[in-house]
Design goal:
Chain A: Pfam families: Fer2, Fer2_2. Chain A: One of its GO terms (molecular function) is isoquinoline 1-oxidoreductase activity. Chain A: InterPro entries: 2Fe-2S-bd, 2Fe-2S-bd_dom_sf, 2Fe-2S_ferredoxin-like_sf, 2Fe-2S_ferredoxin-type, 2Fe2S_fd_BS, Beta-grasp_dom_sf, Diverse_Oxidoreductases. Chain A: Keywords: 2Fe-2S, Iron, Iron-sulfur, Metal-binding, Oxidoreductase. The complex is a heterodimer of chains A (150) and B (770). With 150 residues, chain A is α+β, with helices and mostly antiparallel strands. Chain A is 34% helix and 14% strand. Chain A has a five-stranded mixed β-sheet with strand order 2-1-5-3-4, covered by helices on one side. Chain A is globular. With 770 residues, chain B is an alpha+beta fold. Chain B folds into three domains: 222 residues, 2-Layer Sandwich (Aldehyde Oxidoreductase, domain 4), CATH 3.30.365; 160 residues, Aldehyde oxidase/xanthine dehydrogenase, molybdopterin binding domain (Aldehyde Oxidoreductase, domain 4, 2-Layer Sandwich); 341 residues, Aldehyde Oxidoreductase, domain 4 (2-Layer Sandwich). Helices cover 27% and strands 21% of the residues of chain B. Chain B contains 20 helices and 28 strands. Chain B has a seven-stranded mixed β-sheet with strand order 9-10-7-17-14-15-16, sandwiched between helices. In chain B, a hairpin with a 5-residue loop joins strand 1 and strand 2. Chain B is globular. Classes of the chains: A alpha+beta (150), B alpha+beta (770).
Chain lengths: 150, 770
């Protein structure tokens, strides 16, 4: 039996220990905010925070996070008012919105580690998260905004 | 947002989310209690609008009925239906916003609900062709004005005053003579009893009184849900007892399953069943390819099970498709005469007599859509009834195809439209929904069919592959006197009918026969090209290769004559005039030519605007270069300037992009800017990396590592967008697609300016590093 804390709640799993965390979250725990985009850690749509680090849940097995704390977009802030979420809304970032949960989780992790990232640091830290609609200019602006306080 | 699952419930940890069936009738209280007043014909009042659109000629036309689209609840909440699919353009906000504007509703008290697929009820729902605002600006205004009139009439009756004395203002109806006011909610029940006013007599707001339209101050309706993970996309629909499926499809288009061994797959924990999935021979429009489905308790198990399948395929005739060989065939075809599709003067003779002939042969490979959300659909088929939840651009078409595929009446099919995690034309084809419907029927249980990224790349309806060859004949003064453009590419029509070898009229009309230059001798030709895979619409469609060729050729002519790119471009566009190409029944994006002609004054204007705002001719550092391109598509006019920087190793970056768009009368400039910003990214993606290639009939790319798209670290430093203010009666035109075509040629013109190297073959790849 694998035990993992997700958004502060204890969850358990007695199925395949190799099951990617992504599919546990989406299909077993009903937390569909985390998205499937590539399955190979190439696009970042499935980004969640494990302890304090951004990870791609599509290549992270449920066993890898046993005993650890997972935060998904649903658990980032109780009212959805994390500075990154607020900045995203202020800049009106999303187009289709599908990649945005992953982008927001990546940005939140970046700001935990580096509260005042430079232009280049933002562009580098966010380069693992693809947005096919092409919202990068606004994502960059929103991360700046979140880092300067909204 | 769909009606079946309550997003609020998904915040918990329930294994299966309880489904609440809420019928549409119970939601549409007030004005929507009973329906029925349906005009399935174009409804344009010539007195009010100086233009017409092609909306009425779309399948099922337009429905203008406030009782279908608007509901007012007793608490004052106004519910407006969005009948078009949201894939990132903002249409789910923009169309309801038009209704709210005209009915004087307060946007903060408006709820937007997504309409299911029912074109008889809602009118055409195909969300493609950059058509939604252009076709629905007038009808949505009329719907809003009708609703407002009914509310005003109800108030006037309540007070016993003439309707002319009352006025709806910001969610209330006001009788200023007596100072009385009634909220929309208080009037809802009475307003529902009012007859729907005749469209001809409707009084529309004076645009100077607009509070929302043209302002760009309103965020998209899904903004909060998107940023909190509550927004519902196709894959987020969960039904009780739902099974999760992935399908192994024939690796070659038209291939067939010979045999399969399910044993190893069935041993994977969580896998419940392995079954054959029904397929159709190629071509068969959007019918599924067939193969072997793995059914499991979650998607992860299904994927693992599929990896363990042992499969034998018969690749069939398309197993020979090879992109390297096919390119040679296209190039050879482009060097010989082909079907003449536009002829003015005598291009042959003029080219022979020209002082100089500039020749450009341009190659553009297949492209995949790769929307961030891969195709996915949920189906629940019970007896002769089917319910679908899917991110489809064409809910009406999906409903029709599901009914045909299952052999049940269309009335028995409900298609619920979720948010689309990107569409770009891929989700106009409903094969994934048909797969889910067929599996659900066979299993007798709800099923979600999830495509992986590899599935998406291997079984897309790809953007075509093409060779565009242009010969431009110049006289001694450098003036272009002859133009021959041969466009060779497999046609989208090949997906519908075997043996279609020539471009369809709508493909010819996308940048080939509508070429706007003022040249005396023009020949446009379309040599034959056979298709060996599924070809489909990709954002901007044939405009991508045509604009690339035509606008690159402008750069080549500028170089050949030693002139400035922009001046060369304006000289080719020529005098301000309405272009009348010698083409019988030229396809004009489905729009009447009188209202939407090729107007070179507007074309010139966007060039001049972008040149001014984008500081054309500015000094740039060493290794940098500026390029410009303009293109009319989806009846909008767009010009782009790209600045590139190339370092000593040949590494490219794009410090700045400037784009000017004339899309006529517009609704939401903030979303126009976001579309154009995104188009620069998509344009840069396809120019730098975009290529799907075939070997032995199979797509060679698998995922985002070998089908790359632009990431933030290589995205433009800044993208500036300038919108041409519309005249009082300028018809609205497209926004979603027109931004893409001018980008790649502007980029290549900039690369030439920076490095003296002309790139004629896409993608750029490592060509600058060689």
């Amino acid at each position: 039996m694998i035990k993992v804390k997700i958004n502060g709640q204890e969850q358990s799993w007695d199925g395949d220990p190799d099951l990617p965390l992504l599919w546990f979250l989406r299909d077993e725990a009903g937390l569909t905010g985390t998205k499937f985009g590539c399955g190979q850690a190439l696009c970042g749509a499935c980004t969640v925070i494990v302890d304090k680090e951004a990870v791609r849940s599509c290549i992270t097995s449920i066993n890898d996070v046993a005993g650890r704390e997972v935060t998904t977009i649903e658990g980032l802030h109780p009212n959805g008012d994390h500075p990154v979420q607020k900045a995203w809304r202020q800049v009106n970032v999303p187009q289709c919105g599908f990649c945005q949960a992953g982008q927001i989780m990546q940005a939140a992790a970046l700001l935990m580690e580096n509260p005042k990232p430079s232009h280049d640091q933002i562009r580098e830290a966010m380069a693992g998260n693809i947005c096919r609609c092409g919202c990068y200019q606004r994502i960059e602006n929103a991360v700046h905004l979140a880092s300067t306080g909204v | 947002m769909n009606f079946i699952d309550n997003p609020g419930k998904l915040r918990g940890f329930e294994k299966h989310i309880r489904v609440e069936k809420v019928s549409r009738r119970s939601i549409l209280k007030g004005l929507g209690v009973t329906g029925g007043f349906v005009l399935a014909a174009p409804v344009m009042s010539r007195q009010a609008f100086a233009y017409e659109t092609g909306a009425g000629k779309m399948p099922h036309g337009v429905v203008v009925d406030p009782r279908v689209f608007v509901a007012v609840a007793p608490d004052g909440t106004v519910t407006i239906l969005a009948h078009r699919a949201e894939m990132g353009t903002g249409v789910r906000t923009s169309l309801p916003l038009i209704v709210a504007e005209e009915m004087e509703a307060d946007w903060s008290r408006v709820k937007v609900e997504q309409a299911h697929g029912d074109e008889v009820k809602f009118g055409n729902q195909d969300t493609d062709g950059s058509r939604s605002t252009r076709h629905y600006l007038i009808p949505m205004r009329q719907i809003g004005a009708s609703a407002r009139t009914m509310l005003e009439q109800a108030a006037a009756k309540r007070w016993g005053v003439p309707a002319t004395e009352v006025k709806a203002v910001n969610h209330e109806v006001v009788h200023s003579a007596s100072g009385r006011k009634l909220g929309f909610g208080e009037l809802a029940a009475d307003a529902a009893k009012e007859s729907v006013p005749a469209i001809e007599g409707l009084k529309l707001k004076d645009p100077k009184d607009f509070r929302y339209l043209g302002k760009g101050q309103v965020g998209i309706v899904d903004l909060h849900d998107i940023t909190t993970g509550k927004a519902r996309y196709g894959a987020d629909v969960r039904l009780p007892g739902m099974k999760y499926a992935v399908i192994a499809r024939p690796p070659v288009t038209g291939g067939k399953l010979v045999s399969f061994d399910p044993d190893a797959a069935l041993k994977v924990p969580g896998v419940e069943k392995v079954m054959q999935a029904r397929g159709w021979p190629w071509p068969s429009k959007f019918q599924p390819l067939g193969g072997v489905a793995v059914i499991a308790r979650n998607t992860g198990a299904a994927i693992k099970g599929r990896d363990a399948l042992k499969l034998t395929w018969d690749d069939g005739a398309n197993g020979k498709y090879d992109s390297v060989a096919y390119r040679k065939e296209l190039e050879e075809a482009s060097r010989k005469p082909g079907l003449v599709v536009r002829q003015e003067g005598d291009a042959d003779a003029a080219l022979k007599g020209a002082d100089k002939v500039v020749v450009g042969e341009y190659y553009l490979p297949h492209l995949a859509h790769v929307s961030m959300e891969p195709p996915v659909a949920v189906a629940d088929v019970k007896g002769d009834k089917a319910e679908i939840w899917a991110p489809v651009q064409s809910p009406g078409g999906t409903r029709e195809d599901v009914a045909k595929t299952l052999g049940i009446p269309e009335d028995n099919v409900t298609v619920n439209v979720t948010l689309l995690g990107g569409g770009f034309g891929r989700k106009s084809k409903c094969d994934f929904a048909l797969e889910a419907a067929l599996l659900s029927k066979e299993l007798g249980a709800p099923v979600k069919v999830q495509w992986t990224r590899e599935d998406d790349l291997h079984h897309d309806f790809l953007h075509t592959v093409s060779v565009e060859r242009i010969e431009a004949g110049l006289d001694k003064s450098g003036k272009v006197i002859a133009w021959r453009h041969r466009s060779v590419a497999p046609t989208i029509a090949s997906t519908f009918a075997a043996g279609a070898n020539h471009a369809a009229p709508f493909e010819l009309g996308m940048g080939l026969v509508d070429m706007p230059f003022e040249i005396a001798n023009i020949s446009c030709e379309n040599p034959e090209a056979a298709a060996f895979t599924r070809i489909g619409w990709f954002r901007s469609v044939s405009n991508i290769p045509r604009a690339f060729a035509v606008q690159s050729m402008v750069g080549e002519i500028a170089h050949a004559t030693g002139r400035d790119q922009k001046e060369t471009l304006l000289a080719l566009i020529g005098s301000p005039r309405i272009v009348k190409p010698a083409v019988k029944d030229m396809w004009n994006y489905g729009e009447p030519y009188d209202s939407y002609p090729i107007d070179t004054a507007r074309l010139r204007k966007v060039v001049e605007l972008v040149a001014e705002k984008g500081e054309w001719g500015r000094q740039v550092p060493k290794g940098h270069g500026l390029g410009i391109a303009v293109h009319r598509s989806f009846v909008s006019y767009i010009a782009t300037i790209v600045e590139v920087a190339i370092d000593e190793k040949g590494k490219l970056s794009v410090p700045r992009v400037d784009t000017a768009i004339d899309c006529g009368t517009y609704v939401n400039p903030e979303r126009i800017a976001s579309q154009i910003e995104g188009a620069a990214i998509m344009g840069l993606s396809l120019a730098k990396y975009g290529a799907v290639t075939f070997k032995d009939g199979k797509v060679e790319q698998k995922n985002f590592d070998d089908f790359q798209v632009i990431r933030m670290d290589e995205s433009p430093g800044v993208t500036n967008v300038y919108i041409v203010p519309p005249g009082p009666d300028t018809p609205p035109s497209g926004v979603g697609e027109p931004g893409v075509p001018p980008f790649a040629p502007a980029l290549m013109n900039a690369i030439f300016a920076a490095a003296g190297k002309r790139i004629r073959s896409l993608p750029l790849g490592k060509q600058l590093e060689a």
